[in-house]
Design brief:
With 439 residues, the chain is of the alpha+beta class. Helix content is 61%, strand content 7%. The chain is built from 18 helices and six strands. A four-stranded mixed beta sheet has the order 3-6-4-5. A two-stranded antiparallel ribbon has the order 1-2. Helix 3 packs across helix 9.
Length: 439
């Protein structure tokens, strides 16, 4: 199975970045998320369609060391790599793409344009890093992009199409169009052949009927037999019915072949779209911390921890064993791909919230846990998750609550639930940081 690079790129476009982009652009998180869902397959499709363009491949190679991934919101706009790349991918259709996305997602054209730069930066940055990590040369990058052509159209959200971007399928997926044309041509040929065969059969049958009728008529001259007019009529009806059934048989068989193929692709597209473009959107609300309002999800980490502390649950816990099974997952804190020392944009807010909670309840002690998905070497997974937990512990220490953070452990994929063969988006649930109370 070829690599779906969209799953890789989604790691850079997580909830934290969506939240920060919504705040910076003055848009709703749902609108930003919807726009990204439409832009990502469009940009990857543009790269796939230009897989053999040396300039495009060179841009991906350079993006690895350009620092784009480290500052997507601030470094994508006006970046010459991205500006030149968009011109190569879409030419004069950039405006149409932006307009379509703005209309589809309900955000402004300016926001859609900024998101196009951001998504393009995340895409080439991620591809460049992947190519560098896996020692892919120009031919390897081209091959990787070519592999994406078969999946892009099925990943476009419902309500969007290449045509809606002003990008006809004949320009991006010419081979698919040729295949459909070939099937259509074959269907026409088969139908014509069926009609011709039926016509020949009817002609031959009519000749035999005529001969038999003439012989019968000669043998019964002057008899006034009813068969003189009834027999030809019955035979004519039978011949017409035979012709109709022959044509219907050929036409039904041919149409079923094409329709079944189309239905399969439509179902696949609907499944993919409903799985990746309609995520459950959470909205930050005010969480009351003894009169101080923290921004967090209702039912999220802060909300649950504060409720537990206010209820006396921590104070009444006899020992650590009474607390060890309840972990609170960070909603916004995410590390950059492969890093244990760099947090994604938007993570600091929840780190500040945790500091505020610990300061409000100085008797509370916590432990940090790091987790990975089931892919990769387990020893490396444990090492990475441990390093990330230690980083959060150190960060909390610098914020003045270090004495309340008594441990930081990495569990690798020990508690991962999603199969290693699942998509990157599905496995993201296992790649997390968490905190629990401890004594």
């Amino acid at each position: 199975m070829s690599l779906n690079v969209i799953d890789l790129i989604k790691g850079q476009l997580g909830p934290a970045l969506v939240s920060q982009a919504a705040s910076q652009f003055g848009e709703s998180e749902s609108g930003i998320s919807k726009a990204i869902g439409g832009l990502l397959p469009a940009v990857v499709g543009g790269l796939a369609n230009n897989a053999d363009n040396p300039g495009v491949v060179d841009a991906i190679t350079k993006a690895s060391s350009s620092g784009i991934l480290g500052n997507l919101l601030g470094g994508s706009s006006g970046n010459p790599i991205i500006t030149n790349l968009l011109s190569s991918l879409f030419g004069d259709k950039v405006g149409g793409l932006v307009n379509s996305i703005a209309s589809f997602s309900g955000i402004s054209n300016n926001s859609a344009g900024s998101l196009l730069n951001l998504v393009t930066g995340a895409t080439v940055g991620t591809l460049g890093k992947y190519a560098a990590d896996n020692n892919l040369g120009a031919s390897g990058i081209s091959s990787l992009l070519h592999d994406q052509k078969g999946i892009i159209s099925s990943l476009l959200p419902a309500g969007l199409s290449l045509a809606s971007f002003g990008l006809g399928a004949e320009n991006w997926f010419g081979q698919a169009k040729e295949t459909v044309s070939s099937v259509t041509s074959t269907a026409k040929d088969n139908l014509a052949e069926g009609v011709a065969t039926a016509r020949e059969n009817v002609t031959e049958g009519a000749r035999e009927v005529r001969e038999r009728f003439e012989n019968n008529n000669n043998n019964n001259q002057g008899g006034g037999s009813i068969w003189k007019w009834l027999l030809p009529l019955l035979l004519l009806i039978a011949a017409g019915y035979f012709l109709w059934k022959q044509c219907e048989k050929k036409q039904t068989t041919t149409t079923t072949t094409v329709s079944d193929s189309t239905a399969t692709k439509t179902d696949t597209a609907a499944t993919t779209t409903s799985g990746t473009v309609a995520p459950v959107t959470k909205t930050d609300e005010n969480i009351d911390l003894n009169g101080v309002m923290l921004k967090g999800y209702k039912g999220g980490m802060e909300d649950q921890m504060i409720a537990f502390l206010k209820s006396g649950g921590y104070k009444n816990a006899a020992d650590d064993s009474a607390l060890k099974d309840k972990w609170y997952d960070f909603d916004h804190v995410n590390f950059k791909m492969g890093s244990s020392t760099e947090l994604e944009a938007g993570s600091q807010g929840q780190m500040d919230n945790l500091v505020a909670i610990l300061k409000a309840f100085p008797e509370a002690k916590v432990k940090i846990g790091g987790y990975t998905d089931k892919t990769g070497n387990e020893a490396n997974n444990v090492k990475l998750s441990k390093a990330r937990a230690e980083y959060i512990k150190a960060t909390l220490g610098k914020a003045g609550v270090g004495s309340q953070v008594i441990a930081a452990d990495g569990y690798g994929s020990q508690f991962a639930k999603v199969d290693a063969k699942a998509s990157d988006a599905e496995r993201a649930a296992d790649r997390k940081m968490a905190v629990r109370f401890a004594k």
